[in-house]
């Protein structure tokens, strides 16, 4: 499978400088070619060919190969509400956190359910039809209780967002956050649709509900220390998984696409692994009442989460157990091309 080149900001800058130099040289060449051409066309062609080779040499190349798709990969058959025996403990521990948070994020704001033509119809009666043009951007790590509050708010508001995982010892997005915001503190939200960018979970939540709803913050997100403590219990139940970077990882060029919702224990274990491997992803929130549930149903013939799409390998799959294995095989410490330090030529391409 072919991969597009991965180019860092520094490499891009060098590339731009190299191309600019090449263009400048080409302009000089054009003048020289015309001057020589008046005396003899053959000499002009030779000068142009030599200069073209020099221009090619001026453009830098990159080397990091990135993720490799598993051989003979077969996506598993999705099985609704059928936990695997070896995943039972993880599922139960993940459920404790959801209970501690009283299922916050399970439904969207203004949730309504009705029976129409013999079918259950779930929707929001209050969220605006228009959605942000661009996904929001969240710098966080999975086990942080303050980050969980913000993720819950984003789920309630049915907002899609890019997650840039910043686990302890993270090398990709933690330094980037310090460069952007001035300190390594989480969560940090950027809204490319407005001018908002900031720390502090309560400030972020207030901004989100004022901008994308009627301004009323749900009680479950507005209880101060009670909210923080209950979010912390969710972290303790999972023994802080999703808080530290794995010793070696494979860095993808493009963000993965993750479909899920915050309280689901099946989804939580996937987010933990994505964080530990520093894998950026677009979070497609699917709380009850989200229109994206119907979108998945229309596109795939069923609704089930978690669901993961990987544009780096062209693969997609359901089932948390097999998603975890896929992430281990492609991005984990024992995966092909795994490295212990961030290569200099790795960058992120969203489109």
Automatic annotation (TrEMBL):
InterPro entries: Glutathione_S-Trfase, Glutathione_S-Trfase_N, Thioredoxin-like_sf
Amino acid composition bias (Acidic residues), ranges on this chain: 40-51
Protein name: GST N-terminal domain-containing protein
GST N-terminal domain boundaries: 134-216, 254-335
This protein's GO CC annotations: chloroplast
Region (Disordered): 34-53, 59-79
């Amino acid at each position: 499978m072919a991969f597009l080149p991965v180019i860092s900001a520094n490499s891009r800058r060098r590339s731009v400088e190299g191309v600019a130099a090449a263009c400048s040289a080409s302009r000089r060449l054009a003048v020289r070619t015309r001057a020589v051409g008046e005396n003899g066309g053959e000499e002009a062609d030779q000068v142009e060919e030599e200069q073209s080779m020099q221009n090619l040499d001026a453009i830098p190349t990159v080397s990091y190969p990135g993720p490799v798709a598993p051989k003979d990969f077969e996506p598993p058959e999705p099985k609704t509400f059928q936990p695997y025996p070896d995943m039972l403990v993880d599922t139960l521990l993940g459920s404790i956190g959801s209970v501690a948070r009283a299922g916050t994020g399970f439904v969207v704001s203004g949730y309504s359910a009705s029976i129409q033509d013999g079918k259950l119809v779930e929707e929001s009666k209050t969220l605006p039809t228009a959605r942000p043009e661009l996904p929001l951007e969240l710098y966080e790590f999975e086990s942080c209780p303050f980050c969980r509050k913000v993720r819950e708010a984003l789920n309630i508001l049915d907002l899609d967002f890019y997650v840039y995982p910043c686990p302890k010892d993270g090398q990709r997005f933690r330094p980037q956050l310090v460069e952007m915001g001035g300190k390594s503190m989480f969560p940090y939200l950027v809204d490319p649709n407005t001018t908002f960018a900031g720390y502090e979970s309560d400030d972020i939540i207030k901004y989100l509900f004022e901008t994308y709803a009627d301004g009323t913050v749900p009680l479950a997100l507005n209880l101060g220390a009670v909210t923080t403590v209950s979010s912390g219990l969710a972290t303790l139940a999972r023994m802080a998984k999703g808080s530290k970077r794995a010793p070696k990882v494979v860095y993808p060029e493009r963000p993965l696409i993750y479909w899920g919702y915050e309280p689901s224990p099946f989804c939580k274990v996937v987010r933990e692994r994505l964080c530990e491997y520093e894998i950026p992803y677009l979070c497609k929130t699917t709380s009850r009442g989200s229109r994206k549930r119907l979108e998945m149903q229309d596109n795939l013939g069923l609704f089930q989460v978690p669901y993961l799409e990987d544009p780096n390998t062209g693969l997609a799959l359901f089932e948390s157990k097999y998603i975890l294995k896929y992430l281990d095989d492609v991005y984990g410490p024992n995966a092909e091309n795994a490295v212990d330090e961030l290569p200099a030529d790795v960058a992120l391409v969203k489109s």
